[in-house]
Amino acid sequence: MGLIKNYTLPLLVCMLILISAVGCENEVTTIKIAEQYGIAYAPLQVMKENHLLEEALGDGYQVEWIKLSNTAAIREAMLGDGLDIGFMGIPPFLIGVDAGMDWKIMTGLSESPLGLVVNDPAITDLSLLLENGKIALPQPGSIQHILLAMAAQKQLGDAKAFDVQLISMKHPDGMMALNAGTEVVGHYTSPPYIFQELENEQNHMLIDGIDGTGAPFTFIAGVCRKELFDNKKVYNTFIEALDKSIDLLNTRDSKVIEQLSQAYELDSDVLLSYMDKEGMSYNLDIKGVELFIDFMYGEEYLEKEITKEDVIWQQNK
After folding, report:
1. Domains and CATH numbers, the chain
2. What is the DSSP secondary structure assignment for residue 84, as one 8-state letter?
3. Residue 24 pLDDT
């Protein structure tokens, strides 16, 4: 009996080590990525459909894609450690920085025609929109809101002239409300919704994004927190997979176009016509950060002085 007892403890220790080793081998790291609505996010759809990130990362990783309606939801998810990478406009990202978020921009994704579409032909300039119905956009502080504020400051001398008229809606809901002739008379939106709204003869574009900035800007950028940035394998592999996705998209790979056609429920010819619109571009460039910082700080949308260097991750090799 004593001999059996002497062998029992070492045997149990060996079993525990073996079980622990097997458990480690089977551990899977999940990378959670958030996108929003519209074809400005098309490279992410390409990456998702073709499993480019999973294949590049290899065994031990899986990718979870999450679609959220606005940046506030992305911010909350990232604060709660429920998200690793999020895609959004630069202004709401800057508001997060101002509030103390330890995130920075890792890459650009797309440039895009943006604009305020109205359903009343009598509204021919911004002054005629004042106190005249609701303006739908994703949320206060969104890039659409800040572009509207920039145009209002230039044309009316008051960046906050329309703040009381804003109503938060997802882009598909905003389009439905505009076309239905509800209290919503204007919708500041992005592709494909802006193109679809302008196909309705009762609608017209009152202002576009360049009316606000005066220069080209990145519409959608990818952001992450320091923990992800410090994970060199995941960070760099993600950028490489995104670059490959954009290349497949820009070369109009037939398989990719078919995938996107189904995902966005658009005829492939219509989808291609949207992607070929002037101002529609997919690339990793990051443009317009200083334009937004200067305006938002000057108009007190930001409390802290922020520089471009403060908010963009440097190359992580």
Report:
1. 25-112+219-310 (3.40.190.10), 115-213 (3.40.190.10)
2. S
3. 42
